[in-house]
Automatic annotation (TrEMBL):
Highest taxon listed in the record's lineage: Eukaryota
Name recorded for this polypeptide: Tc1-like transposase DDE domain-containing protein
Span list, region Disordered: 31-55
InterPro entries: RNaseH_sf, Tc1-like_DDE_dom
UniProt cross-references to Pfam families, sorted A to Z: DDE_3
Residue span(s) of domain Tc1-like transposase DDE: 249-316
GO MF terms, alphabetically ordered: nucleic acid binding
Biased composition (Basic and acidic residues): 42-55
Length: 317
């Protein structure tokens, strides 16, 4: 064998040993498989794979049988069922879009057709792939934003600005304020599969108000105010004594006037040719002392119509 295949004296022993090692491993594996087969208890019940195949076959047979009853082929019957499911789901969600998959479709179909079993995961996949619907977080929108009355006020305001030849880009500064809590946190977080996301937060965090003003060139100035605590007056406890517990005092017209003064001083120092301060119609912005003070400084207040924050560029800043 050595001369016929030109194997040297060192290669042959290695090949033989490798073959023997393989034979030994194969024999051990065969013995283990035989032991498992003998140790397995005899049962008349079919294996799980056989049961699945039988159920799948029966499932398709039932589809074919149902299709023949109405004069349809199996594929056409399946397509019709999917189409019907999509129509039912879309109709339900059109009336009540906040329903979950289980509430909207699975439970409804189970009640409509009592002899069928619907798997939730299959229904979710059908909703995403066939109906192209996904369950999203709701973004609340003010109910009066798109009312006819609001739209009319918005149209009248824009018409007035046009009639006064107000140049938003070159004559207006845009102001607004926003409040937030120091204990705010994001709503989503990465976590291991199967484990909930939990964070420790303070229930009585500090509230802060941020004032800002921008123009076409960028930020004019900003101002931060922390909500102060003042003593309660006139409120009595169940025992009849006056409560000394502090209460939170939010942003007032005086606070906003303080910021307005800061904005006007910055504009005058930079020789910016702005005439109008664009604001929303919040009550603290419409105080008489603010309008009088701004007028004395040579500026005018320009209030936006209600429910129209998108007309103020600082809302997107």
């Amino acid at each position: 064998m050595n001369d016929e295949y030109n194997f040297d004296s060192e290669t042959v022993p290695v090949m033989i040993q490798s073959y023997m090692d393989w034979e030994e491993t194969a024999a051990v594996n065969a013995a283990q498989k035989e032991a498992k087969r003998k140790a397995k208890p005899h049962s008349k019940e079919p294996s799980l794979d056989v049961v699945k195949k039988e159920r799948r076959s029966l499932h398709y047979q039932e589809r074919s049988k149902a299709g023949r009853k109405v004069g349809l082929s199996k594929s056409t019957a399946i397509r019709k069922v999917k189409q019907m499911t999509s129509e039912i789901a879309e109709k339900l969600l059109a009336n009540e879009p906040t329903l979950t998959v289980v509430e909207a479709v699975t439970d409804h179909l189970s009640k409509e057709f009592r002899d069928i079993q619907i798997i939730r995961r299959s229904m979710e996949n059908h909703m995403k792939k066939k109906c192209r619907l996904t369950y999203k977080r709701i973004n609340p929108r003010y109910y009066g934003r798109n009312k006819d009355e609001t739209v009319a006020k918005r149209r009248d305001a824009v018409a007035y600005w046009v009639s006064q030849n107000i140049d938003f880009m070159n004559e207006c500064a845009f102001l607004d304020e926003a409040g937030f809590n120091r204990s705010m946190h994001r709503s989503y977080e990465w976590s291991e599969a199967g484990t909930p996301c939990k964070i420790d937060v303070q229930t009585k965090g500090v509230n802060v108000s941020i004032f800002g003003a921008i123009c076409k060139s960028g930020l004019i100035t900003s101002f931060r105010k922390q909500v102060v605590l003042t003593a309660r007056s006139g409120k009595r406890t169940p025992t009849g004594e006056k409560s000394q517990a502090p209460k939170r005092k939010g942003t007032t017209s005086s606070n906003f006037l303080e910021y307005i003064e800061q904005v006007l001083t910055t504009l005058d120092a930079a020789n910016m040719s702005y005439k109008y301060l664009v604001l929303d119609n919040a009550s603290i912005h419409k105080a008489a002392l603010i309008e009088d003070w701004v007028g004395r400084r040579g500026y005018k207040l320009l209030f936006l119509p209600p429910y129209s924050p998108f007309l103020n560029p600082i809302e997107e800043f």
